[in-house]
Amino acid sequence: MTTASEHARPALAPAGSWRLPLGSARSGRSLLLDKRACVANLLLAAALWAACVASLCLGEVSITPRAAIAGLFGYGDFMDVFVVQELRWTRLLAGVLSGGAFALAGCLMQTLARNRLATPGIIGLDNGATAFAVASVLGVGLGIAPPAMALVGASVATAIAFGLAGGIGTQGYRFLVAGIGVGAAFDAITRLMLARSAIDAANAAYPWTVGSLNGVGALALNMLAIGLVIGLIGAAALARALGVVRFSEGVAQGLGIRVAHIRLGALVLSVGLTALAVAVAGPVGLIALIGPELARHLSSRRGVPLMGATLAGALLMVVADLAGRVLFSPIEIPVGLISTVVGAPVLLWILLRPGHKIGV
Amino acid sequence: MNGRPRIAAGAPQRRVRLWFALLCAATLLVCVASLLFGAGAIGPLDSLDTLIRALSGHTSDDNAWFTIESLRAPRTAIGVLVGAALAVAGALLQAVTRNPLAEPGLLGVSGGATFAVAIAIALGADAASLRVPVAQFGALAGCVAVLAASRVRGAGDDPVRLVLAGAVLSGLLYALTSLILLFDERTADEIRFWVVGSFAGRRPDDVIALLPGLAVAAVVVVGIARPLAALALGEHVASGLGHRPRLVRLLVVLAVALLVGSATAIAGPIAFIGLVAPFVARGLAGPDVRTTLWLCLPIGAVLTLGADVVSRLVVRPSELPLGVLTALIGAPVLVAVVRSRRLPTL
Amino acid sequence: MSFFYGRRRTPGLIVALALLLLAGTAHAARTLDTAYGDVEIDGTPERVVTLYEGALDSAVALGTTPLAAVATRGGDSVANYMHDHVPDIAIVGTARETNIEAVVAQRPDVILASSNLSEPQYRLLSKIAPTVVPKGSSFAADAWQNETRLFARALGREDKAEQLIEAFDARAEHIRAQLPAHTEAAVARWMPQGPIVMSSRIFAGRVLSAAGFETGNDGKIAANRPHSDPLSLENLDRIDSDWLFLATLNADGESALAKARTSPAFERLDVVQRDQVVPVDGQLWTSASGPLAANAILDDIARALGIAAQP
């Protein structure tokens, strides 16, 4: 192989890719960029930018894009500055970060389980994180902050779901149904806690049960931002290996990839990202399914569209939140309900499309 | 468990009868417990005393007798009826989709009933009067959706894929229900305590309102048990034996809609009974749907009424939502079913 | 609203006139002691937004017309009894969630909120306008009186608040004098699977005990749960008392009572046998608070018991 590439220098990129030389030409290091994936990511980024501007402008008070941008930096009318800086910017940030985190986590888990339906929400992680976070809000949880409790909950749910699925492997759908069972149990516990608490405390815990970006805490948001950066770096590091692992473990082992390490890494990232995102936005699990789906449709089938999925998830979350705020104003529809109403038909279509495999 | 269901059951017949008798005795026991225990001040000993005196003809109008006769007796009857109905509905649905995971709650049949009731109340219907037919209609719609999904090539062959589709459909229906509640505070208030499931405060009239639907369903079930068992051997075999698979499926959908609609109308959505009861029944007597159906009657009743008795005792002087309790029982069983080494296709 | 002036009509009027003069000469800056520390308010606020039913009630009773308020529990506008006072008030949220953008859009001078406003919400709102959050729990003994005093200070109408409270005390005293000793009362909402019993520490309970009723049901329902779970029907005798006020949020009271009477357990209660169940407006009895609500509840009580409402 080495000799082949020596002869081919200056190397030609495979069809449909760009080759970016890294460092000096002599070092021979280069980066292959998939053309279609690049275009797709640019498209998604542009759409996300447009959605973000719209999200800053629209709402109970409409603001022109120019005033919104000015307001973001503290110029202009007091009301515009306040609405943009204090309300919409935090909310937008929460939407972008949580949407990105949900979708990245979903994409990682789908790849790891080689199943397009294997998203954290479906196997009960969201419900586990929610149950623990609600326990924290209602004061059952020793006063630990909701994000930390969500992390614990997601880990517990994962451990149970994967532990139960251990005997049957991660392939096929059985472990998904085991996850549905785990999710149902955690959901029952959440409802039980809400039914047993005073009405004001139950109202405080309400956003946790439907998924809402209203009233996001600064701590949870900061933790999510850090988590997403770590997640993206980790995902970038894992991307190549995951791309091989998803085809065949045998080939991956042949190439010297330590499959077990890769899978564990992807799982840990996925669980962590989901938990942090739940701590900010509540259970909005379907984003984890639709985001990667959208990214996969836009980009080529060659790689694992981790970046594309992150962008798509952020886009979907921002758009869903914007729709929930604007459509029936002044009543606000929680983003969790919107994403279920839109996402469930997509999911059904994936499941029931005749004659299609559901592998990644 | 033998994967091939037997049309002619021979030797195990006696064992099945024994189990059936034992389970009926257990049902009776739970019924007595349901009459004896409650969230109120009338303890089990007082209740027993009153009950024995009543049996020997000495009824009185004191509090103990009132509690037993007017409060605990109707909910006992409802518990038995709802439990048996949900269990049989589960067994039917599992037989016709040939899928051991097909459960009315998981597959969106209960979700359809809940959604229909929410719409009816939002449109101004009084919660009490319209509920039964509306819930049955909603359950019918959910049922048709499930069956349509199971007929899609690919999804129908794969038991777990159907359940996933059902779970998604349920999620969608509950999200739509939540949307209605978000826009209509009056509906939200009326329905808030109904969606968690409960048997409390139902009157004898409410029970009587259920009976026509349940009776029709019972007749249908008796009629289709044999063709359904034949259908388990495959469509060709069933046709060869002179049954009409399409008609059988249609009747099953009707029966399930009647059963689940009635149960949901009076008790709210109660999950997992339709999964757990047939699972236990098959474990005891093998996969033949005719025996499963019989055994489901007492098993469903014991499970549901037992859960109700527990729900009264845990958080006295209030009561626990029943749907939560059945979900806590049912989720582990669901996991156990999928974990069983070879998922039997029925 | 003549009853607000009560017995001491003449001195009250003089004080009010003096107050008006004072208010005319620009109210002095004042410091309010609120749950989130001292809040400075200067002058007489004109654009008032209330995020709490008690605040809306107090503000209206004190003679201001708020621009916006939150919807009552279980409704999509302000409570029925407030409707005629503020026919075209803007709605900026529900009891569950405040729409802060809608609050900003009103450009308020002052925001009056409830004592359980969360700190993050407070921090946001206080950037829009001085936000007044009462100290202490809304279940405390003198909660509504203290809240009214605080809101009155915020609005620059302290003396009017004292008049309102004195007038209420006088009316309550008048009803108490006509009531037989040791008369018990309970407040509940009817649900088919059992009633939701209201703690005696919620607003309506406080008004009832001010009017001379014994409302000690704290032993019957758990502490810090002002709105209890549906009580098991087997324990229905816990709401048995001399008078039962049956609240309903939606249907009209009579039909709610008719529905409750179809339950044999309810029918057995002594209070039902004696026909002393009074259907009342749940928005007023189980959600509202403030001087107007207090007087409206006194009206309901007087009407039910067939006694004179005014001294």
From TrEMBL, chain A:
It holds the Pfam family FecCD. The chain crosses the membrane at residues 39-63, 89-109, 121-142, 148-168, 175-199, 219-243, 264-291, 303-323, 335-352. Signal peptide: none annotated. GO terms for cellular component: plasma membrane. Keywords: Cell membrane, Membrane, Transmembrane, Transmembrane helix, Transport. It is found in: Cell membrane. InterPro entries: ABC_BtuC-like (IPR037294), ABC_transptr_permease_BtuC (IPR000522). GO terms for molecular function: transmembrane transporter activity. It is a multi-pass membrane protein. SUPFAM superfamilies: ABC transporter involved in vitamin B12 uptake, BtuC. Its main location: membrane. One of its GO terms (biological process) is siderophore-iron import into cell. Belongs to the binding-protein-dependent transport system permease family. FecCD subfamily. PANTHER family: FERRIC ENTEROBACTIN TRANSPORT SYSTEM PERMEASE PROTEIN, FERRIC ENTEROBACTIN TRANSPORT SYSTEM PERMEASE PROTEIN FEPG. This is Iron dicitrate transport system permease protein FecD. It comes from Salinisphaera shabanensis E1L3A. The lineage of its organism: Bacteria, Pseudomonadati, Pseudomonadota, Gammaproteobacteria, Salinisphaerales.
TrEMBL record, chain B:
Keywords: Cell membrane, Membrane, Transmembrane, Transmembrane helix, Transport. GO terms for cellular component: plasma membrane. It is a multi-pass membrane protein. The keyword DNA repair does not apply. GO terms for molecular function: transmembrane transporter activity. It is found in: Cell membrane. The chain crosses the membrane at residues 20-42, 76-93, 105-124, 130-150, 162-183, 207-229, 250-280, 292-310, 322-340. GO terms for biological process: siderophore-iron import into cell. InterPro entries: ABC_BtuC-like, ABC_transptr_permease_BtuC. Coiled coil: none annotated. Belongs to the binding-protein-dependent transport system permease family. FecCD subfamily. This is ABC transporter membrane spanning protein. It comes from Salinisphaera shabanensis E1L3A. The lineage of its organism: Bacteria, Pseudomonadati, Pseudomonadota, Gammaproteobacteria, Salinisphaerales. The gene is fepD.
UniProtKB/TrEMBL annotation, chain C:
InterPro entries: ABC_transptr_periplasmic_BD, Bact_iron-sidero_bind. GO terms for biological process: iron coordination entity transport. Belongs to the bacterial solute-binding protein 8 family. GO terms for cellular component: outer membrane-bounded periplasmic space. Keywords: Ion transport, Iron, Iron transport, Signal, Transport. Its main location: other. Residues 47-309 form the Fe/B12 periplasmic-binding domain. It is found in: Cell envelope. Coiled coil: none annotated. The keyword Cell wall biogenesis/degradation does not apply. PANTHER family: IRON III DICITRATE-BINDING PERIPLASMIC PROTEIN, IRON(3+)-HYDROXAMATE-BINDING PROTEIN FHUD. Gene3D superfamilies: Nitrogenase molybdenum iron protein domain. This is Iron dicitrate transport system permease protein FecB. Residues 1-28 form the signal peptide. The keyword RNA-binding does not apply. The gene is fecB.
